[in-house]
Automatic annotation (TrEMBL):
SUPFAM superfamilies, A to Z: NAD(P)-binding Rossmann-fold domains
Database matches in Pfam families: GDP_Man_Dehyd
GO molecular function, a single term: dTDP-glucose 4,6-dehydratase activity
InterPro entries: dTDP_Gluc_deHydtase, NAD(P)-bd_dom, NAD(P)-bd_dom_sf
Protein name stated in the entry: dTDP-glucose 4,6-dehydratase
Segments forming domain NAD(P)-binding: 2-292
Entry's EC annotation: 4.2.1.46
Source organism (scientific name): Occultella aeris
GO BP, sorted A to Z: nucleotide-sugar metabolic process
Encoding gene, per UniProt annotation: rmlB
Length: 329
């Protein structure tokens, strides 16, 4: 199995899950180790995998690795909305050209391909809209990040239909758990509180995200690999809708602080209001169920992980906060 982006947040958790639960799988990771990739995230399993440092948009690096694989799971991406607003180019390069490069290679070698994508391709929902995203919701992305992910999904659909590439796509909601970069909302606020800094909420903090534990996401990917139908798309979500204000209050409470000890800061331009996933198809057709349905206890476990692993996140913290400070966030 070739896993791209295996030194990033979700990819590293996928590698751990695969090595521990499916020792028969021969894992190769391809990762460019950008600012978001961290070889330390794979330290525990380093002896059990092959690690290749390289770019998914580099056909010469990609092709022999794909040729030697039975299946490719493509996690690698530029993944942070705020960065895409500051500089969209790496998003176009990695998310579009990188996906194109992998697709041409899996097409050439007739290799099974699974594409990791996001619910953000569907745009956003109003707070009072009872609707949730389904597999037939039209694409309507808002940011440079989500538009490049939407474009990459459409490439996969086209390569499946036009060239018969054996591909599946999953669109998942917001993940939380260990090894997530401190630029992202939940780890940023946990590590702020652990550093004696007040959490920062964009706007009024009323935006809603649909949280899922990263291990539930990754088990769903395995379910799709084993039982999914090539050419199809599956939405992954665990009914975890929470507004940002409530998440920050919960983090503060779990860390023994006053629930209102946060600051409201400059909002994200074009900030999507609400995401919500209807994962009925994955549950009824493929039999997947989340193992972390309780957000509060999953969050408490995640807080404990950051408390116990400061050596992992501390080196990223100052540079990340300097970027935010420059944007008034
Ligand atoms: P991340 O930013 O933590 O990790 C991305 C990884 O990709 C890093 O290890 C980085 O070094 C690597 N990478 C970046 N550019 C590369 C390139 N050109 N070549 C090779 N490697 C490269 O991202 P994440 O949060 O783990 O997200 C992984 C995937 O899941 C992405 O495709 C993202 O769109 C998708 N996704 C994320 C979430 C979420 O909540 N984080 C939710 C749904 C879908
Ligand atoms: O929905 C899936 C997507 O979730 C993934 O595709 C993306 O890769 C992933 O980054 C995530 O995107 P978001 O933009 O939703 O995540 P982020 O962690 O950046 O922000 C979550 C919410 O918290 C969002 O409403 C913005 C807000 N926020 C974020 C930060 C960093 C704050 O209020 N304060 C902050 O400091």
């Amino acid at each position: 199995m070739l896993i791209t982006g295996g030194a990033g947040f979700i990819g590293a958790n996928f590698v751990h899950q695969t090595v521990h639960e499916r020792p028969e799988v021969d894992v190769t990771v391809l990762d460019a180790l950008t600012y978001a990739g961290n070889a330390d995230s794979l330290a525990d399993v380093r002896e059990k995998i092959t690690f290749v440092e390289g770019d998914v948009a580099d056909a010469a690096a990609v092709d022999p690795l794909v040729e030697a694989s039975d299946v490719v799971v493509h996690f690698a991406a530029e993944s942070h909305n705020d960065n895409s607003l500051a500089n969209p180019w790496p998003f176009v390069q990695t998310n579009l050209i990188g996906t194109y490069t992998l697709l041409e290679s899996v097409r050439r070698h007739a290799v099974r391909y699974h594409h990791i994508s996001t619910d953000e391709v569907y745009g956003d929902l109003e707070l009072d809209d009872p609707a949730r995203f389904t597999e037939s919701t039209p694409y309507n992305p808002s940011s440079p990040y989500s538009s490049t992910k939407a474009g990459s999904d459409l490439l996969v659909r086209a390569w499946a239909r036009s060239f018969g590439v054996e591909a599946t796509i999953s669109n998942c909601s917001n993940n939380y758990g260990p090894f997530q970069h401190v630029e992202k909302f939940i780890p940023r606020q946990i590590t702020n509180v652990l550093s004696g800094v007040r959490p920062k909420l964009y706007g009024q903090g009323l935006n809603v995200r649909d949280w899922i534990h990263v291990d539930d996401h990754n088990r769903a990917v395995w379910t799709i690999l084993e039982k999914g139908t090539p050419g199809e798309t599956y939405l992954i979500g665990a009914d975890g809708e929470e507004n940002n204000k409530h998440v920050v209050e919960l983090i503060l409470q779990l860390l023994g602080q006053d629930a209102d000890a946060y600051d409201l800061v400059t909002d994200r331009p074009g900030h999507d209001m609400r995401y919500a996933i209807d994962s009925t198809r994955l549950r009824t057709e493929l039999g997947w169920e989340p193992r972390f349905p309780d957000f509060r206890s999953g969050l408490a476990e995640t807080i404990a992980w950051y408390r116990d692993n400061e050596a992992w996140w501390r080196p990223q913290k100052d540079a990340t906060e300097a970027k935010y400070a420059a944007a008034g966030q």
